[in-house]
What we know:
The protein has helices spanning 23-40, 46-64, 69-76, 84-91, 133-138, 146-161, 179-183, 186-199, 214-218, 239-247, 253-260, 264-270, 288-306, 311-323; strands spanning 110-117, 120-127, 166-172, 204-213, 225-229, 233-235, 275-277. The chain is an alpha/beta fold. It is globular.
Amino acid sequence: MPKEKKVKISSRDVFGACPPFERPIVELERTILEMRARHEGGADLSAEIEKAEKKLVKEIRKVYQNLTPWQRVQVARHPLRPYTLDYVNYLMKDFFEIRGDRYFSDDRAVVTGPALFRGWKVCVVGHQKGRDTKENLVRTFGSAHPEGYRKALRVMRLAERFSLPIVSFVDTPGAYPGIGAEERGQAEAIAYSLKGMSELEVPIVVVVIGEGGSGGALGIGLGDHVIVMENAYYSVISPEGCAAILWKDHSRAAEAAESLHLTSYELLKLGVIDEVVKEPLGGAHRDFETVADELGHAIDRALRRLSKLTPKKLTDRRYQKFRAMGVFSELNSRPEPGVNLKT
């Protein structure tokens, strides 16, 4: 029987920020880290550490094999979850960030530029959150302004000129909701980005790595192949927003998450996305290298397949892909000849 792989433990204390259902796991991790420190200091705690590690694996498996949609949303927001630049720095080389939309300013919530990926010359686009309060204020928690979408489209059009495929990383709670953003044309910027992406004659691979919140996510999410990480979500609205609108009660977010069908496997079943990348035991934040390698393989496969298509075929398929979403069957309102509706 193969030896069970150890769960990696972060030294960063996230007890106060982790989801409530993860707190028993984090407490166990704290205990193991303390025992390891004492063991390195000379105390022989190898047996106790091994026992605690086995208990940790069992606890993680028990929790993560039965996640509800609301819990998956909380995992997607985990403070240790990998962000766009984590994947870019691991999977790609020579990334060169391009700044500014050439209309107003540079939006730090969106990063974009050329890079090398497994022999491919690509253009990277992605939402970027911060790791602490200071960085999150600079990056507005991954919520893009109009200039972020305009910058992204500017660089994607540049990529088209050089025949570079595009890899887009989506991770946002939604577009920035401030007055300034609305005054500068938030809705127009997203709509124009959607129009522009639909016309690009290069392959576009989209990956939802964390939060896929509403139009803010779709603004850089219109592509030929859409991948969603197992514990990410993609939705027209956040569960809290949905609960507030429908029931005037934020506390019913878990109920809203069930109704929105926002998890990766539900989205795949509905035909909204094309692929789900499985995450290691305990989520992407517990074994980044493994999940990044899996994602790299998925992106590479998609690029190989899409690169064989002509520009015309790419844009036609892209149009049909998004045009088919939300299709439903209708009963003919006119009865067939000879059919008596009263019987």
